[in-house]
Task: structure prediction
Amino acid sequence: MQEFLRQSNYLGIGPDSPLWFVLALFMIVFGVMAASWLVNLFVRKLIQRAGRTATTWDDILLTSLKRPLTVFIWTVGISYAAEFAWHDADAYLAGLIGTARKLLIILTLVWFVLRFLKGFEQRLLEKEGKGRILDRAGARALNKLLRASVAVTAGLMMLQTMGYSIAGLLTFGGIGGVIAGFAARDMLANFFGGLMIYLDRPFTEGDWIRSPDREIEGTVEYIGWRLTRIRTFDQRPLYVPNSAFANIAVENPSRMSHRRINEAIGVRYDDIAVVPAIVDGVKRMLQTHPAIDTGKTLIVNLNEFSASSADILIYTYTKTTDWAEFHEVKQSVLLKVHDIVAGQNAEIAFPTTTMHVANAGLPWEE
Result:
């Protein structure tokens, strides 16, 4: 700039000349455009080189930086051009331009951080099933927490830039927080309930849950800070406040390791003599069935004499936890049990009633 001023004086263009003003403004704008083009070219080259590396974090960083960096260059350049254009204006206007520049720089930095956090969340979600540290709900919760922290920090920095005292604001916020806490305690309860879900992870999105305390059962679709959306088995959405999960028992069948077959098979009392053979046959069948986990409890025994049958208890576990596949396995087991009973020339009992009438000296019997 000093060289430009020296050369302009040689040409007879003084600082008070309109032509000098136009040339200086042109140089500033041209410099901004050139800097923006060079920086974009440099960042594109870095992105291409980063794409050939094994790690993806450099890709996320550079991709997040590209557009905010361009806006940053233009913000600084245009603001200084505006200051130069109005250098003879009053100090108030010059102060406004400087304050606006600082605010735009803060917003540009926030934009860059939010873009990086978005890429960070996507990176965590892409690692699902590959040793991922956080599940989908945890990744979203961490991203929301970081975004909220960035927003609050940026807001305080902008207030400080505009001349407001942060210390006084924080003091007022402490008093106002107590008042707001009483007014919005349900909202806060839901917020901390959501936080406990994220930390304790009793369930995640996609899990099938139910509560014996409430009429809650279905598949978790979304876990928010205020409520959780559950899709019931008749496909209705159920919205449950997060604070409710702090006071109820929640069962998560999606995390079961096995499914249980617990059946009582009744045979006729006329076939009581072949019950031991039926029990042995059913036990051998279960021990060799490919879908039955023999490492878990397996019980086949005569369990009860009921009103019209001798009941045999069948208690075992399947290897699968899939609901539809479990019923296929259960059907296979029950049909094989029927074949074993029939192979002993016995029958599965059905409810019967035997009436005994003693000789009461009826008139037609005399």
